[in-house]
């Protein structure tokens, strides 16, 4: 892996972990804090992504068919026709003709549109606690994602604290508590029901700093992006955190089934909370989440993580090439 | 960005309306726009294709060329076809001949089943039923808790013999719940099930087993209005896997265009019965296919609006109000009275959202603060009788007294008086037939414009920012759209503009 994650060195940590020699610890520039490299367990979403093009045998004459298929995967009209014209251009310039060659080109074009220099989760600066603020509309998988992510980070030796700033939905805190205990993370709960979520976020941040947590993840209530009072509330949550610690990532969770409204969601949440990455959930279903292509195309926000099930391990980093190869498929026709 | 599907089609039809006779080329241009609008609205591609073909066939037929106004006729065809796909007539919930009626909920993860279960139970309870909720989602962490909390809130019992979080057999729970309901004489059993994917064979089989165990009168498939192209696959999978009897469209309070409504109805042929429109337990309505089509065509959901209005708006007082308006004796007392009437109708927001042309102001509506009514009330209550009857006498010193008395600022009082005058003026226009008459509700557009204007101003003031008032502008735009609505045509939804 080209990137390296760092956490604070604790007394309990083994002497010095072997680190990738090519990557220099940021502690070199932050002399007061000693950091240890973290290896997260390897996970892949490869098997979760099924091809949508398996029924088409590509040839130079039927490239138009690609557009329809992309539309059916929620890429959106504009993105779909842009992809098709890129594929046509490349096919022409490379004189590509066979099904395999053309598929390869399509994979390349899609992967290129989803590649991003900052695709890794920002857990590398050394400025702990890394605060991850998780946002999104109702029911997309925010809480589940936090459970999976906490577990994963904990497996890598990160000390994780979770802030339960969804003080609104029925039993939301209990749900998060269940995940926190599964993952072995600390949970900062509201002191009373319906407490101001910003206050919970503030306390969670304070506690994470005080206790020297490596990562703080804040769960928030699902909110539809057209409700300005709720969006203002989110703005407030992010401000109170930033008063204490700079937020490392604002992760917008998008459900792969989401259609064109996903772009509207990304725009609205970015405006309020400066989204730095997308978590694409429910990729284990029949939906492909093509809207993320438009999100990156228009807003430059990369997909960082994917959810592929309801289990605690059904989760991985997003790999553009793997994703593109998955949906295009390379099987013989 | 492009507007809603409604806005988009209005845009398309605007061009169409300006021409007299339609050539096949005109029709094709229009259909291209419709195709595009529908795709942007997330209507599934296969549904779009058949829709466009159906419209083209009819539009090219004699029907159109012989019609008085061909453009209107195309609009009418689009409307007809939309209604047809959405399920034609409105369908009511089916009740069992002998209690209990069993309603099973099914859908993808996160589609809003649990919240809907609560809303449905509350709605049924208000109709004199005695519902019980069944916690058969034993999968998602704390789904059982969530249902219990929801049940507590609406004071409906929850049958939850298993803790959930992976523990317990949902089929068994479902089966037992029916026995329990019979014993305890509950009239409706609502079974909340775990969210599952259409491609998950095992879980689909489980849903089918639950269905067989409870033998439901309705299997409601709950689907999120934000879903994209996958709606067709998911709907098919549930229809084939579990067998659904009806559909509930959730999260319609968002700004998604809801093309899924068309997709799902079209591939399953099952009617959409309810729409779920918010996180509150009352944010729930029956679904009306013809009105949804009208809404798609930006005709506004006027019928629902009228119905809700009539429920709580006292007709006699409404008529009296209309007379007052005509005679120009509308006072601040009437203003207050009318506002209280409005409050009785429930959420002003959701009412306004149904207005014709509301597409453009949908987002402003979301931000409308109902507390504005409280503030207005406080101010008017601090006025003397004479002041309420004759707002003209409100000079500076009276205004500052009122401000003190109501705990508001003089600016608040001033803006209320302005809004009153504006509302009175706009309502007079309405009373004179300036915009379509809506039975039982004089001057809704004026009132809406007034209120929203008030809130907008306040917000601007708070932030000390820009001049101008976007909400008011939107309201005015909406008014203009009203005026531009196509007239003629014989379909129910076209009768309003005449
Ligand atoms: N199949 C599948 N289901 C998922 C995935 N991620 C989450 N879910 C399910 O989606 C549903 C909603 O997940 P939550 O984590 O509660 O979503 P949320 O965004 O926190 O919801 P609210 O807080 O209510 O807005 C649950 O049933 C989860 O089990 C995924 O990757 N695949
Ligand atoms: Mg949650």
How would you sum up this structure, described in words?
By secondary structure, chain A is of the alpha/beta class. Chain A has two domains: 5-38, no CATH class; 45-333, 3-Layer(aba) Sandwich (Rossmann fold), CATH 3.40.50.300. Helix content of chain A is 38%, strand content 15%. Chain A has ten helices and ten strands. In chain A, the strands form two sheets. Chain A has an eight-stranded mixed β-sheet, with helices on both faces. In chain A, strands 1-2 form a two-stranded antiparallel ribbon. In chain A, α6 (197-210) runs parallel beside α7 (228-242). The longest helix of chain A has 17 residues, at 77-93. The two termini of chain A are 34 Å apart. Chain B folds into three domains: 3-85, Up-down Bundle (Four Helix Bundle (Hemerythrin (Met), subunit A)); 101-288, P-loop containing nucleotide triphosphate hydrolases (Rossmann fold, 3-Layer(aba) Sandwich), CATH 3.40.50; 311-431, Signal recognition particle, SRP54 subunit, M-domain (434 Repressor (Amino-terminal Domain), Orthogonal Bundle), CATH 1.10.260. With 498 residues, chain B is an alpha/beta fold. Chain B is flat and about 75 Å long. Chain B has an eight-stranded mixed β-sheet with strand order 3-2-4-1-5-6-7-8, with helices on both faces. Chain B is built from 23 helices and eight strands. Chain B has helices spanning 5-18, 24-40, 45-60, 62-65, 70-85, 113-126, 143-154, 170-183, 201-214, 231-241, 260-268, 289-296, 302-312, 315-327, 332-344, 348-353, 362-366, 371-381, 385-389, 396-406, 410-431, 444-463, 470-484; strands at 101-107, 131-136, 158-159, 188-193, 218-224, 246-250, 272-276, 284-286. At the A-B interface, α1, α5 and α8 of A face α2, α7, α10 and α17 of B.
- End-to-end distance of chain B, in Å? 32 Å
Domain tally of chain B: 3
How helical, in percent, are the residues of chain A?
A: 25-40%
Radius of gyration of chain B: 25 Å
CATH C-level label of the largest domain in chain B = Alpha Beta
Superfamily at the CATH H level of the largest domain in chain A? P-loop containing nucleotide triphosphate hydrolases
Q: How does the major sheet of chain B shape up?
A: 8 strands, mixed
Figure out the total of helices of chain B: 23
**Overall morphology of chain B:** flat
User: What fraction, in percent, of the residue positions of chain B are helical?
Assistant: 55-70%
Quaternary: heterodimer
Based on DSSP secondary structure assignment, what is the total number of beta strands of chain A? 10
Could you tell me the CATH topology label of the largest domain in chain A: Rossmann fold
Count of discrete alpha- or pi-helical segments spanning 4 or more residues of chain A: 10
Name of the CATH class of the largest domain in chain A: Alpha Beta
Tell me the strand percentage band of chain B: 5-15%
- Average pLDDT across residues of chain A? 88
């Amino acid at each position: 892996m080209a990137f390296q994650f760092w956490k604070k060195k604790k007394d309990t940590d083994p002497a010095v972990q072997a680190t990738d020699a090519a990557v220099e610890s940021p502690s070199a520039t932050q002399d007061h804090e000693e950091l240890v490299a973290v290896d997260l367990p390897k996970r892949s979403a490869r098997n979760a992504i099924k091809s949508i093009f398996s029924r088409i045998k590509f040839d130079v004459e039927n490239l138009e068919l690609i557009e329809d298929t992309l539309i059916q995967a929620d890429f959106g009209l504009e993105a779909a026709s842009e992809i098709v014209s890129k594929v046509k251009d490349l096919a022409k310039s490379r004189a590509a003709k066979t099904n395999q060659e053309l598929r390869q080109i399509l994979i390349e074009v899609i992967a290129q549109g989803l590649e991003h220099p900052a695709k890794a989760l920002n857990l590398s600066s050394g400025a702990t606690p890394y605060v991850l603020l998780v946002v999104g509309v109702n029911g997309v998988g925010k809480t589940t994602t936090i459970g999976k992510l906490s577990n994963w980070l904990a497996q890598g030796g990160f000390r994780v604290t979770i802030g339960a700033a969804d003080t609104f939905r029925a039993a939301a805190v209990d749900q998060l508590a269940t995940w926190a205990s599964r993952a072995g993370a600390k949970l900062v709960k509201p002191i009373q029901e319906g407490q101001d979520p910003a206050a919970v976020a503030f306390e969670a941040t304070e506690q994470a700093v005080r206790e020297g947590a490596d990562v703080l993840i804040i769960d928030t209530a699902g909110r539809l992006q057209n409700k300005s009072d709720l969006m203002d509330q989110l703005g407030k949550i992010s401000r109170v955190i930033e008063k204490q610690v700079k937020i490392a990532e604002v992760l917008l969770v998008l459900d792969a089934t989401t259609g064109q409204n996903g772009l509207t969601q990304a725009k609205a949440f970015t405006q309020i909370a400066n989204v730095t990455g997308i978590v694409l959930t429910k990729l284990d279903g029949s939906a492909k989440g093509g809207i993320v292509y438009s999100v990156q195309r228009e807003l430059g926000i990369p997909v960082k993580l994917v959810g592929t099930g309801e289990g605690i391990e059904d989760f991985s980093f997003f790999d553009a090439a793997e994703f593109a190869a998955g949906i295009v498929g390379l099987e013989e026709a | 960005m492009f507007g809603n599907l409604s806005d988009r089609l209005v845009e398309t039809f605007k061009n169409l309306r300006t021409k007299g006779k339609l050539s096949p080329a005109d029709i094709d241009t229009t259909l291209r726009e419709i195709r595009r609008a529908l795709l942007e609205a997330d209507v599934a591609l296969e549904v779009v294709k058949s829709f466009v073909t159906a419209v083209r066939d009819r539009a090219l037929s004699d029907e159109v060329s012989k019609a008085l106004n061909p453009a209107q006729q195309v609009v009418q065809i689009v409307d007809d076809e939309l209604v047809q796909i959405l399920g034609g007539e409105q369908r009511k919930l089916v009740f069992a001949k002998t209690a209990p009626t069993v309603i099973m909920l099914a859908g993808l993860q996160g589609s809003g089943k649990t919240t809907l279960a609560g809303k449905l139970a509350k709605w049924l309870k208000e109709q004199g039923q005695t519902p019980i909720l069944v916690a058969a989602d034993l999968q998602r962490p704390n789904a059982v808790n969530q249902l219990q909390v929801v049940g507590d809130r609406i004071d409906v019992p929850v049958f939850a013999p298993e803790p959930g979080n992976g523990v317990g057999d949902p089929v068994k729970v479902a089966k037992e719940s029916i026995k329990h309901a019979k014993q305890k004489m509950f009239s409706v059993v609502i079974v909340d099930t775990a969210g599952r994917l259409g491609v998950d064979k095992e879980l689909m089989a489980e849903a089918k087993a639950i269905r067989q165990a409870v033998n439901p009168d309705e299997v409601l498939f709950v689907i999120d209005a934000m879903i994209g192209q996958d709606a067709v696959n998911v709907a098919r999978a549930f229809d084939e896997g579990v067998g659904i009897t009806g559909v509930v469209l959730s999260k319609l309070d968002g700004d998604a265009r809801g093309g899924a409504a068309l997709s799902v109805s079209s591939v399953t042929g099952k009617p959409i019965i309810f729409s779920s429109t918010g996180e509150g337990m009352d944010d729930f309505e029956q679904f009306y296919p013809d009105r949804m089509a009208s809404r798609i065509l930006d005709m506004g959901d006027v019928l629902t609006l009228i119905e809700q209005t009539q429920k709580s708006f006292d007709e006699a007082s409404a008529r009296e109000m209309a007379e007052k308006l005509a005679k120009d004796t509308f006072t601040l007392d009437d203003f207050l009275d009318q506002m209280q009437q409005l409050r009785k109708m429930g959420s002003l927001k959701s009412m306004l959202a149904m207005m014709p042309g509301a597409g453009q102001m949908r987002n402003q509506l979301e931000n409308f603060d109902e507390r504005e009514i409280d503030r207005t009330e406080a101010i008017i209550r601090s006025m003397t009788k004479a002041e309420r009857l004759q707002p003209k006498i409100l000079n500076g010193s009276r205004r500052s007294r009122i401000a003190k008395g109501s705990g508001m600022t003089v600016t608040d009082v001033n803006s209320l008086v302005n809004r009153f005058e504006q509302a009175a003026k706009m309502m007079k226009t309405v009373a004179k037939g300036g915009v379509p008459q809506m039975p039982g509700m004089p001057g809704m557009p004026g009132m809406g414009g007034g209120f929203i204007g008030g809130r907008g101003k306040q917000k601007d003031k708070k932030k000390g920012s820009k001049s101008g008032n976007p909400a008011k502008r939107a309201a005015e735009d909406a008014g203009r759209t009203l005026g531009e609505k196509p007239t003629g045509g014989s379909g129910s939804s076209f009768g309003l503009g005449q």
